[in-house]
Amino acid sequence: MAxxxxxxxxxxxxxxxxxxxxxxxxxxxxxxxxxxxxxVAPALPRMTYGVYDSQSEADSALQQIGDLxxxxxxxxxxxKAHRVFxxxxxxxxxxxxxxxxxxxxx
Length: 106
Prior knowledge:
alpha+beta, 3-stranded antiparallel beta sheet, two-stranded antiparallel ribbon, 5 strands, 27% helix
């Protein structure tokens, strides 16, 4: 069994020009050869921090996250899309660790 650590972010609420950005994003996503990524709104309020093979590895990640947040330091989250996000401590709402089943575990 694997363990997933998810970081839930604080909901920012409605942003200025969000409606216009959604209209523009829809056009960009349908354009041939277009890339969609972190700049296409709206973003999900959660991010996967990591997937770990054992409970002890997941606990270690939770400890590391707790230490960073206590020091008011940003979380560095590597995405599968080869992007790195620095999430400020004040934007983290809570962190969840749960058991997940991967295709290779089945």
